[in-house]
Amino acid sequence: MKSDVAIRSVDYNFENFLYRSPMKFGGIAVDRVTLLNVTITVQTRAGEECTGFGSMPLGNIWAFPSRVMTYDQTLGAMKQLAAGLAKILASYPDCAHPVDINHDLEPHYLDEAARISREEQLAEAIPKLATLVVSSAFDAALHDGFAKASRINCFLGYSSEYMKNDASAYLDNSFTGQYLDECLLPSPQQSMPLYHLVGALDPITSADLTRPLQDGLPETLGDWIRTDGLTHIKIKLNGDDLAWDIERVVAIDSEARRVRPGSWNYSLDFNERCPHVEYLLEFLARVKERSLDLIDRIQYIEQPTSRDLAARPENHMHKAARIKPVVIDESLVDYESLLAARDLGYTGVALKACKGQGNALLMALAAMKFGMFLCVQDLTCPGAALVHSAGLAARVRGVAGIEANARQFVPAANQGWEERFPGIFTIRDGCMATGQLTGPGLGAIESKLNDWGQSTKCN
């Protein structure tokens, strides 16, 4: 294909930010984040060079959870992996579409993770999910540069006009003749409801404020509702204290309806902490006893039990999924894991830019073919990572909402972006204005210029 690209250079760096307030994940409070920023220069078959940019939080607590390694150790392993992946990508010899490049290189990325784990004698090996997160920043920069070189928005580059292979080359023969553009809208949704996160440590009312931050940003749920006009809330739960989880949801619902009467939508995230599916079934039954209206307001449930599906095959979700869509998240690392989740009764898929642009689109296409519920989650993505994630959510068919919680936890990493993308980083009436995401590449670097030749900085 004339739009195929060869890699000319790969550069990367890290940025560190402290959280405004801690977020509890999997029983661990997180108070910081490291961003991996990647710049890749590509060259088309016609000889034109363009530079692409990608950024992603490393999110090691989520991607590389460990009870035997420290935060710094898992983060250090992922940073070391970034160095290895940069060398692998820089040495890629062919000219190809970014989806094909990543497909070719992913086995080598996994081999590099295994090599580091072995030679550094890590107490736990770097998991595939962590490898995907590290490679996603490189993948984003590659897709960004490819699309800039073709003077298109990235999400227009997945049809047979740009791709040599259909989806069967990456999934299975049932996808023969299908291209990734089938799961995408020709233009982004103009606006999307924002799912505001209420973490297990977050204050619901002023009575919960033991140490007010007084930094000018909202601090309680009520403050956020009034400031952003919220209509959707993602509720993080503990998964190991049934009474607490039930009361938490009831309290959040009560406060939300008190501050803004009207319809509400909730998603529930147990962060795979439920010991078994019976916990979830009991939770849903008891919430229903408390309020029929409340159970109706729950839109979907994120992966409630362990990400290791093979180790706990008894945790099938068929009964729970008849009540509400249950989406696979942490377990979703490839097509095989999607098929395994379907067999276990999962009825939805959580797409994430942090697992790779091409991988996310492949999972979206497969989920659509199987009639599964689709949502897009972020990894507390700030800056360019949020623009990328928002573009994914706004382009994939059937996605009804968007998550973006960096504005709550790490607003410092968004500084400078609010002016360039006001509708993305400033929420109005509970929605994100995603219609503006039509620029070249992934749209994160350029401001809204009409002259794409100027804004893409191509030679």
Secondary structure layout plus pairing:
Blueprint: E1 5-25, E2 28-44, E3 49-57, H1 60-63, H2 71-90, H3 98-119, H4 128-149, E4 192-198, H5 221-228, E5 232-236, H6 242-259, E6 265-269, H7 277-290, H8 292-297, E7 298-302, H9 318-321, E8 326-328, H10 335-343, E9 348-351, H11 357-369, E10 373-376, H12 383-395, E11 402-403, H13 406-409, H14 417-420, H15 422-425, E12 431-432, H16 452-455
Parallel strand pairs: 4-5, 4-11, 5-6, 6-7, 7-8, 8-9, 9-10
Antiparallel strand pairs: 1-2, 2-3, 4-12
Can you give keywords for this protein?
three-stranded antiparallel sheet; TIM Barrel; 459 residues; Enolase-like, domain 1; 12 strands; globular; alpha/beta
What does it look like?
- The protein is of the alpha/beta class.
- It has two domains: 5-164, 2-Layer Sandwich (Enolase-like, domain 1), CATH 3.30.390.10; 183-455, TIM Barrel (Alpha-Beta Barrel), CATH 3.20.20.120.
- Helix content is 37%, strand content 18%.
- The chain has 16 helices and twelve strands.
- The chain has helices at residues 60-63, 71-90, 98-119, 128-149, 221-228, 242-259, 277-290, 292-297, 318-321, 335-343, 357-369, 383-395, 406-409, 417-420, 422-425, 452-455; strands at 5-25, 28-44, 49-57, 192-198, 232-236, 265-269, 298-302, 326-328, 348-351, 373-376, 402-403, 431-432.
- The strands form two sheets. Strands 4, 5, 6, 7, 8, 9, 10, 11 and 12 form a nine-stranded mixed β-sheet that branches. Strands 1-2-3 form a three-stranded antiparallel β-sheet.
- α5 runs parallel beside α6.
- The longest helix has 22 residues, at 98-119.
- It is globular, with a radius of gyration of 21 Å.
